[in-house]
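User: quick one, fold this
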Amino acid sequence: MSCFLVPKGSSGLIVGEHSDKMGVRGSQTSEVVFKDCVVAADCLVGKEGDGFKIAMSALDVGRIGIAAMSTGIAQGCLDESIKYSKERVQFKKPIPSQQAIQWFIADIATDIDAARFLYMNAAFIKDQGKPFSIAASKAKLFCSECAARHSTKAVQIHYTYLYSSSDRIPNLRY
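Assistant:
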């Protein structure tokens, strides 16, 4: 297996429309089709036969990026939850005075610190020129699960707001 960079406009290279994703919009995703595509030898990346190794290295770098984006999602959930909870009153008290809300916010904040450490550690190891596959994989796993877990907690904190009117949520798709 070998790796090639195929120049834009190459005969047989078909790039589809950009996907309209619900998240991670800073990274465009499109279908790429190679139909009878011929690529010049000078488009070879690395050595012939190194394609799998190059692809795996690119995935490792991507894992750090996904971990960082996931941490940003969790941070956004925390920021919006704190902001909303200060405005929301229940039983004549702001909801942050409720212990359950305090626990949610403390859990989210703690996991974000751990997530941030994991992806920054993976990036640091990579920048040192050392093998970073394991660190990148751990960061991606923890950070993506952190975002999923804490977006659910943020929905619970925002429950009455979300339940009362879907027109308050921009870009909501059914």
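User: anything notable?
Assistant: The longest strand covers residues 13-18.
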